[in-house]
Design a protein that fits this description.
Elements lengths: L1 H13 L3 H76 L9 H12 L10 H9 L8 H37 L3 H7 L2 H4 L18 H39 L2
Helix pairs in contact: 1-2, 2-3, 2-4, 2-8, 3-6, 5-8
Length: 253
């Protein structure tokens, strides 16, 4: 079509038919412009199709990570609740009749309360890739974007809380070591056998803890931090469940 217009334009120009020549020249320019616009539109559609495909890929990966993290958080909350229950039982034993409490029972409660460090393990590879690659712009849903950008701030707060609990736990552990209780606890729950350590000959009674005001204070402080830690986990769990619902909705055809 462009070749035909070009030949016609040349003939009109040679025959001094300028007005018709001008019309055909304008028509040729119009066709070129239309062709460019169509090419740009096709290119834009292709680019948008690629962007949509990448968005879906990110959303699928995000959904997988969220599902895994929710399972991890749920498991951690359950373990934390068991630890808090054991600590409450210890508090209930303080200032009770010591003769009615068995050494083994105290050791078991101590082990359940302080043998584990609670630190949330999670997967956030997709979140970090979106944040640091600049491709968060591919996600069209603004609510999802806001949740992703809030992730680091939330986890900093969680880690700070976990650090506080860890420090409180260390103080209790050091107190039990200073009072000669720690090895007795290992002996009574058979952990000394696992570590291939000889059992102590000169035993120190774990019941001494039940009459210690300092131990009660340390334990009360530790429980308070644990309950706060559980609250942080539960709030994070709610946030991730909400985000998972939004991501799942976006993936629906």
């Amino acid at each position: 079509m462009a070749n035909i217009l070009r030949k016609t334009r040349q003939q009109l120009y040679m025959n001094d038919r300028f007005s018709k020549y001008l019309i055909y020249a304008i028509g040729e320019i119009f066709l070129v412009v239309v062709g460019i616009l169509i090419a740009l539109q096709v290119n834009n559609l292709n680019e948008q199709s690629k962007a949509d495909a990448k968005e879906v890929k990110y959303l699928i990966s995000m959904k997988s990570e969220l599902s895994t993290n929710l399972k991890l958080i749920h498991s951690e909350i359950e373990s934390l609740e068991r630890s808090i229950d054991s600590q409450r039982e210890l508090i209930a034993l303080i200032n009770t009749e010591e003769d009615t409490v068995k050494e083994m029972y105290i050791a078991q409660l101590l082990a359940k309360s302080f043998s584990r460090v609670f630190e949330l393990k999670y997967r956030d590879g997709t979140f970090k890739e979106l944040l640091y690659s600049g491709e968060l712009i591919l996600i069209k849903n603004d609510s999802i974007k806001n949740e992703v950008t809030s992730w680091d701030g939330r986890m900093i707060a969680v880690r700070k809380q976990e650090k506080g609990v860890y420090d409180a736990r260390e103080k209790i552990t050091h107190f039990m070591i200073d009072k000669g209780i720690f090895k007795m606890m290992l002996d009574d729950v058979s952990f000394s056998d696992y570590l291939q350590l000889k059992k102590s000959i000169n035993r120190t009674s774990s019941k001494r803890l039940l009459s210690s005001q300092k131990f009660e204070n340390l334990l009360s402080y530790h429980i308070a931090l644990n309950i706060s830690q559980k609250s942080f986990y539960e709030k994070l769990e709610d946030n991730l469940e909400n985000l998972l619902r939004m991501v799942t909705a976006e993936l629906k055809p």
